[in-house]
């Protein structure tokens, strides 16, 4: 196994998140939350294109749209992005969703029917370790309609579906849990909420806090462990950790599979003072990493379908 930098330090993000492998162009998409930018790094040409967004809230995800362009969440809004012009067109908002506190979009993905699923982040939080519990939720977005699908979540993060799409895995970062839901792909409804993986209470110094997540073709979950510079692999059937990958920066935020054979892992990172990283180090926080030789591969992530 080998861990290497994808991009030169000059192009490091401030807060890289939400990686998505675009199969059609062999490109890695991801957002820079702090810089309010969308990156598209082409693995064939090595060129990193960047679109700066003129928005109030922070971008949290970017996913290709089947009809062209991309879907981006920012603040309380989900929009269509026309890449060449940078034009954003609103598709839906969180404004009509009942909530006890002000929230914004956080991490998310699409299911095979093209629905967007995304969780929430408290809008006015100053310290993520002191978030009021159970005030967040998970929504689905289809044809501009935003529907609450699960609540009593503190800090929504990574998600992944089992190969048969009967199970949705979803991270609640603050209680350090990977939840599992029974998932009906036809109706887009969730049921039978349970904890698939619980991070041990005594593992904060070694496993940090779960952030973004992806799944391999064997059904194992790969979780970015922020604050400790790791990606950890778990068996959701047993809840056991199987292996870890160590990185040279602590702020590891998310991961996805990509490459021509979907056997490479791409990992985003971020800089925050509380992560404990040094900006003057040999590897700057905010770098994007490629992991090869893992011996596993992933499935292509689904794209947004506005006709669903």
Structural description of this entry:
The protein has one helix at 204-207, and strands at residues 2-5, 16-22, 27-32, 37-42, 48-52, 59-64, 70-74, 77-82, 87-93, 103-110, 116-122, 136-142, 145-153, 156-161, 167-172, 177-184, 189-198, 209-215, 221-226, 230-235, 240-246, 252-258, 264-269, 289-292. By secondary structure, it is mostly beta strands. The strands form 6 sheets. Strands 1-24-23-22 form a 4-stranded antiparallel β-sheet, with no helix packed on it. A 4-stranded antiparallel β-sheet has the order 2-3-4-5, with no helix packed on it. It has a 4-stranded antiparallel β-sheet with strand order 6-7-8-9, with no helix packed on it. β12 and β13 (145-153) form a beta hairpin. The longest helix is centred in the C-terminal third of the chain and has 4 residues, at 204-207. The radius of gyration is 18 Å and the shape is globular. It starts with a strand and ends in a 16-residue tail after the last strand. The model has no long low-confidence stretch (mean pLDDT 93).
User: How many domains?
Assistant: 1
Class from secondary-structure proportions: mainly beta
Query: Which superfamily, in CATH terms, is the homologous superfamily?
Result: TolB, C-terminal domain
Strand order of the largest sheet: 1-24-23-22
What's the CATH first level?
Mainly Beta
Q: What's the count of strands?
A: 24
Extract low-pLDDT stretches.
none
Beta content comes to over 45%
The residue-averaged pLDDT reads 93
Shape: globular
């Amino acid at each position: 196994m080998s861990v290497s930098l994808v991009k030169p330090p000059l192009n490091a993000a401030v807060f890289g998140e939400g990686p998505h492998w675009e199969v059609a162009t062999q490109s890695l998409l991801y957002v820079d939350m702090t810089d309010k930018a969308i990156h598209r790094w082409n693995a064939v040409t090595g060129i990193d294109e960047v679109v700066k967004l003129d928005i109030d809230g922070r971008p949290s995800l970017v996913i290709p749209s089947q009809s062209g362009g991309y879907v981006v969440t920012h603040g309380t809004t989900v929009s269509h992005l026309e890449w060449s012009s940078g034009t954003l067109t609103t598709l839906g908002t969180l404004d009509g969703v009942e909530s006890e506190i002000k929230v914004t979009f956080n991490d998310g993905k699409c299911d095979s029917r093209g629905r967007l699923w995304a969780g929430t982040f408290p809008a006015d939080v100053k310290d993520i370790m002191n978030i009021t519990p159970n005030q967040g939720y998970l929504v689905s977005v289809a044809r501009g309609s935003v529907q609450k699908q699960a609540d009593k979540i503190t800090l929504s993060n990574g998600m992944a579906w089992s190969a048969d799409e009967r199970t949705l895995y979803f991270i609640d970062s603050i209680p350090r849990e990977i939840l599992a839901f029974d998932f009906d792909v036809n109706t887009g409804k969730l049921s039978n909420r349970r904890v698939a993986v619980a991070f041990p209470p005594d593992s904060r110094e070694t496993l940090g806090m779960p952030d973004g997540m992806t799944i391999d073709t064997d059904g194992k979950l790969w979780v970015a462990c922020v604050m400790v510079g790791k990606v950890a692999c778990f068996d959701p059937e047993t809840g056991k950790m199987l292996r870890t990958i160590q990185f040279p920066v602590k702020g590891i935020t998310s991961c996805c599979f990509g490459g021509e054979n979907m056997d490479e892992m791409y990992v985003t990172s971020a800089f925050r003072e509380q992560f404990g990283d040094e900006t003057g180090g040999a590897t700057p926080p905010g770098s994007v990493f490629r992991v090869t030789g893992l011996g596993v591969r992933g499935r292509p992530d689904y794209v947004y379908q506005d006709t669903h």
